[in-house]
Specification:
Number of helices: 9
Order of helices and strands: EEHEHEHEEEHEHEEEHHEHH
Oligomer: single chain
Radius of gyration: 19 Å
Strand content: 15-25%
Number of strands: 12
Strand order of the largest sheet: 8-3-4-7-6-5-12
Structural class: alpha+beta
Shape: globular
Amino acid sequence: MLALQNPVSRRKKPVKVGDRVEVLYTEDRWRLLSELRARALKVMTILDKEGLKPIVHGSLARGDVNSTSDVDVVVPYAVPSYRVELLLDEANAKPIKRLLTQATPAHAVKAHIYIDEVTTVTFPLTDFTRHEREFYRFGGELTLKELRENKRVCGVDKRLKLIEPSPKGHYEEPIMGREHYAAVKVGVSLDVVQERVKVLMRRDQVGRTGVYLKYEVKPDESIEGALIRLASGDPALRRILASRGAL
């Protein structure tokens, strides 16, 4: 079995074939993981105190962080924005930016509250579909309790490689042609894995096409107020909000 000493790579292109290898972490990488998790723990604790159930996902949950990794704390169900903003304000975690995004007209609208350049709190303004919810499990996710226990979990990265934690780092292997195996390992439905493979392979071929909606909420408007105003001029946005009971 191969062991790689310098695991950090900025290349995110999907990998179709390859061996299962073990990636060994340096002391700097373990330190970075600890620092980023400490940021996540602070924000998740703030939200958890008032009954919200946040998760953290991606490389932070798997452990394979690098210098470009950020901290995205997610409340994985619809919640009024004022609850999140009030909790952050009381903890003196005032946002530097608030965004509304929607990947396509068929996807949930999400709010993103940027606490700093690295740390974001994300939550949907309508409940996620099963596929949207399992997207986070596909990449790997942790609850606050699991983060406090310093757990690491399996997940698939943007290269379509399954990341499986090991005591010295992690094992990684491509999932192309092994979608069922990957679905079992990360605990999601096979169709979710197949969808993510299709999306990421297409992105590799044609490049990113952008998101359908990306709007920076003004300081003097609420997140929901901005959404209603945007929906008044966008029939597709109105339809998805109405279909999910948000209008």
